[in-house]
Amino acid sequence: MTERYARQLNLPHWTPETQQHLAAARVLVVGAGGLGSAVLPYLVAAGIGLTGIVEDDRVDLTNLQRQVLYDTQDIGVPKAEAASRRLAALNPDVEIRSHRTRLEPGNAAAILAGYDLVVDCTDNSAARELLNRTCLNLEKPWIHAAVSEYFGQVTTLLPGGPCWQCLSGTGAPADPPPAGILGPVAGLIGSVQATEALKQLTGTGRLLVERLLVWDALLPGWAEFSYRRNPDCWACGRG
Question: What is the reported pTM?
Fold first, then answer.
């Protein structure tokens, strides 16, 4: 066990107790596509005790350009099944739990209630609005990200702070027509999400709270934008 996590245990301020925090943690990843393909392996490899996957899609040939958790033999297989198999082989010492369903108003609270932290790897604003509402009601922290074309963004949302609706504005914006995506952009943003998750669970470093980190692969470069809770927000407004 110690050998598996030796490189983490060699980090400054990372102790056996820090690793035990991860072993006791329960993280839910909603979506096992491009973002999830980066988030899931890094969380499982780091030693998260229980990693849940919410995904109802099947692997398609067009996924493989960016969803590197899968291979050609997985085409047609439910993503939750293929991902669970791959992740269990990566780290057999932790638990993987698959929820082969779409996150919906009727099941969101029951699924999220069993986890400490939620990672948003969805691809549409309706799912994010549902995540936001459910995490607010359950007082769950969650890590939001989105990618499209050459761009990506990520932020961490904590109970009591600004919510996703404060960030996105009044009402969920209409989703744009399907666009292309450069595969490494999804991998890069997913890796930032996984880093935020590990920091949140271990109390390490400064989180992206009230800060939106944006990547433009064409420049290339990062930009950071601050945002605050909107007292008139219909989702979380308490003013």
Answer: 0.95
